[in-house]
What does this fold into?
Amino acid sequence: MNVTQTPFGLKLGAFMNLTVEESAELSQLHSRRKKFAHGTDMIYQGQPKQAAYVLASGWACSYRLLSGGERQIISFNIPGDFLGMRSMMAHNTDHNIEPVTRAEASEVLAADLSQTFKNSPRFTAAMLWAISRDEAILMEHLVGIGRRDAKERTAHLLLELHARLKLVKMTSSSSFACPLTQYLLGDALGLSAVHVNRVLRELREDGLVTFQHGEVEFQDLKGLIALADFDSDYLDQNGVLLN
Amino acid sequence: MNVTQTPFGLKLGAFMNLTVEESAELSQLHSRRKKFAHGTDMIYQGQPKQAAYVLASGWACSYRLLSGGERQIISFNIPGDFLGMRSMMAHNTDHNIEPVTRAEASEVLAADLSQTFKNSPRFTAAMLWAISRDEAILMEHLVGIGRRDAKERTAHLLLELHARLKLVKMTSSSSFACPLTQYLLGDALGLSAVHVNRVLRELREDGLVTFQHGEVEFQDLKGLIALADFDSDYLDQNGVLLN
DNA sequence: TTGCTGTTTTGATGTGGATCAATGTTATCC
DNA sequence: GGATAACATTGATCCACATCAAAACAGCAA
It folds into this structure.
């Protein structure tokens, strides 16, 4: 299979066109495939070997648990995302990553990665781009929790997921399959699951989006974008989407 | 001056010992010095040239403005921090960085940086470490805003700043100089300045910390750490601090 | 000394979202 | 067909923090 058509390839393609050699290099990284079932952590505190993964299929989420038992989901991960850069670089891993659905991922060894960095400066740049983009997503998430109310926040997240999934060709024009429960949404949005439910109902009643039976459908995309004050620039993929 | 004693050198030193050659390489990056006054943005939306900086002295903060006029401070930056990685990699800059005090920073050109990456894989790793660490700080911030109450959050931020400043030798054992206003704290913590004031008073009355006249003083460090549920692991600098 | 400007402090009142407690829905398995 | 489990929905009550308003204070310029 052509690597440029994998989710990871599609994503990096938003930053630059991959040469034949780079595609080959990428295939290497992409070889050691692993499967994860719902309920088993992919990355966790105190794990023996520092590993990183490229998510090939399925969704995951990274989260932190507080001593009081509450949890905060840091980010949702979709196919093409690179997981665990931090657990590879840092001496302690302080957050967990668990699959939301069944998931497949390619394990990336630190040695291989640094070899690839050496071989291809352009690939290095692309990885830095991907990392910065993840950071931008995190920032936007922070802004949402800090300064947007529950409705705006929820709308924003749905719009973001739509845009990100679009990049890896996992959407139809105005809907996408979404395996997240209201509990997961709550843990990500800093809301109770109960309140997430109310917010989703309001959005539905306003004729903006519906989220039912694992499917998010946008009824009024413009209205939703206005409500959420959503500007996709931070995802840095507009050039690609316009093509 | 020995680069290893600059804040940036001290910080990277937490990850690895710099060789003589690496120090030289680092000095190169560190040469084009610029000054910034309070009130002029260092990095802003739509700026002509993509630049990055290493903060040499003074404090800064990066923030996002919402259409409603509210702002969310993403992070506070102290000497040794690398600023603007994202504005260098991405096609659009979506957040601003402004100095909190007068500040000096070394401008880093994209070309120089990628050259340095090519020359020194170890430096590349150190930069990735620094980036991951920034991401971890951001995550912790997110967790705080999402799941901690105002008092815990405030305490946590003060403890984090103390630990980070320690790494670049800008603290005394139980206090540090802090140029932040209560408005800035509020914008970072997702609180109103009024509420920040009340929280600071409570912390003072509890005999935990005082923050007055630009000086943060810890009265009961253990108590504060317990209150904030603070675990410095995420800063990945414990090994260094123990030496 | 007198402002002027930015910052801190305190009080009174209002609200978004948490929490508690049920009930409804759907899927799965026997 | 009933039992069980996971998830979604709705109502009632409460509190942490926002918002509004005003005063006290510090630093600085003239």
Notes: Chain A touches chain B through 49 residues (CB under 8 Å). Residues 149-150, 191-192, 194-195, 198, 213 of chain A lie near DNA strand C (CB under 10 Å from a C1').
